[in-house]
Write a structure and sequence with these properties.
By secondary structure, the chain is mostly helical. It has 2 domains: about 400 residues, no CATH class; about 35 residues, no CATH class. The chain is built from 18 helices and 2 strands. The longest helix is centred in the first third of the chain and has 28 residues.
């Protein structure tokens, strides 16, 4: 199941870093492995604008824990003699690193969704199709092809959902509660906003479970939650002076060449009036960025969460955590941003919430009525249409504005959609060198 999802993802994974968000993370990973530091001054990616200045040194403005956890992937690649290459069309190390981090996370979402569907007694055939179609019909698809935190957070949220179902149906043992806390802590340290949404709701859920009120199980959950947050604190304090990541510190962007200030950074209330907030939200969700418009299956999940309360009777507490945690996170991200996450496709700050919205649809696929089966097939067709749209418009350039309709057909620009296949083809044919640069005649 995993490789059936991962191999197609690898074929369309990007082969070069193109934006500062990626350069910032790659620079941190490179510095950790090659110099044993988080500083960017000596990195080939030091020119990224996604950086802060603290006590005379530059650091990525992203939370440091994810780069730390991904560093072993680059260490393994570097032990084979590979190194990141800047400003080349084909960076083999970047490609492999992306496939083994973001690609694995995207495949993991497919596997977890399939496991949950099967647990809810959806047939193997329908579960297989739904896991692929629903996942790839969301913004998880383009962000599973580049280096970013959103797809990893989406995988962690899917994992949290699976663990909560385990607790709900099989009991809140110490080991399960520890894993719930651990995954929740990782999600919070990487994405930040779950601290005000999924963390309190999950704690309330565990406290509401009778065994969850025991000292052992609750202590296990607390230890699991604290471990990644403590590691985040140990890393982050040395880079910002407190627990908040660099992106929340406008004062750390005061240096020559900085492109950010308090009016453009996340972590600030950026909408002085309700009307401005409503306008920004509509542009992020339906018009300019089209979070729901390009992926209507997410809107279907949002609606199903409202009207499907009775359908979730068998696991209503888990539904409560996932649904309201996602709503709180979505509203918070809309309130604390004002630039949609830059030029990137979609409202990328809400990418990781996709698994929770998709899980609102599980009871429809699990139901046996004629209406439910017809609705299930309709949802699959909607997802298939979204996959085609996202593939055509966002896959070639996930970090840049849409080109719609595409200037050329997929056949004419096939190399934009399957870059690694194109690079191998050109290299074998002697047209380009190992970095994807044209060979001299």
């Amino acid at each position: 199941m995993f490789f059936a999802a991962w191999i197609p993802i690898v074929l369309i994974t990007r082969t070069e870093a193109t934006v500062d968000h990626e350069l910032s993370r790659l620079g941190t990973v490179e510095s950790i492995v090659e110099r044993g530091t988080y500083r960017l001054e000596q990195s080939q990616f030091r020119s990224t604008i996604d950086r802060i200045a603290y006590r005379g040194h530059f650091y990525s403005h992203q939370p440091p824990l994810l780069s730390t956890l991904e560093a072993p992937v680059f260490w393994f690649l570097s032990s084979a003699g590979l190194r990141f290459a800047r400003d080349v069309p084909f960076d083999l190390t970047y490609f492999l690193f992306t496939a083994c981090t973001s690609g694995v996370a995207l495949s993991g979402v497919v596997v977890i969704l399939y496991a949950i569907l099967r647990r809810m007694r959806v047939t193997a055939g329908m579960g297989f199709m739904a896991a692929y179609a629903l996942t790839f019909g969301t913004w998880l698809l383009p962000y599973g092809l580049v280096v970013d935190n959103h797809i990893v957070s989406g995988f962690l949220l899917a994992g949290l959902a699976w663990l909560l179902f385990e607790v709900e149906f099989d009991g809140s043992t110490a080991s399960r509660c520890f894993l719930v806390g651990l995954v929740l802590g990782l999600l919070t340290a990487i994405e930040v906003l779950p601290a005000i949404s999924f963390v309190p709701l999950t704690i309330l859920y565990l406290l509401a479970k009778a065994p969850g009120r025991s000292r052992t199980t609750f202590l296990a959950a607390f230890v699991g939650l604290t471990l990644p947050l403590a590691l985040h604190a140990a890393l982050n304090i040395g880079q910002t002076g407190d627990l908040l990541p660099g992106g929340f510190h406008s004062e750390l962007f005061v240096y020559e060449g900085s492109k950010f200030d308090s009016s453009t950074l996340s972590g600030n209330m950026n909408h002085p009036t309700i009307s401005e907030f409503i306008d920004y939200s509509s542009r992020a969700l339906f018009v300019e960025k089209g979070y729901f418009s390009f992926s209507p299956i997410l809107l279907a999940g949002l609606i199903a969460g409202v009207f499907g309360w009775r359908l979730w009777a068998f696991a209503r507490p888990v539904y409560f955590v996932l649904y309201f945690g996602s709503l709180l996170s979505l509203v918070a991200s809309l309130m604390m941003t004002n630039n949609f996450g830059g030029f990137a496709s979609g409202f990328r700050h809400a990418t990781y919430l996709a698994p929770a919205f998709l899980l609102m649809l599980v009871p429809i696929f699990a139901a046996k009525s004629v209406l439910a089966r017809a609705t299930s097939w309709m949802l699959l067709m909607v997802s298939a249409a979204s996959i085609m749209m996202l593939f055509l418009v966002t896959v070639p350039r996930p970090w840049w504005p849409y080109k719609f309709p595409p200037h050329k057909t997929v056949i004419e620009e096939w190399y934009e959609y399957f870059p690694v296949v194109a690079q191998i083809h050109w290299r074998i044919g002697g047209v380009k060198d190992e970095f994807g640069r044209p060979r001299s005649p």
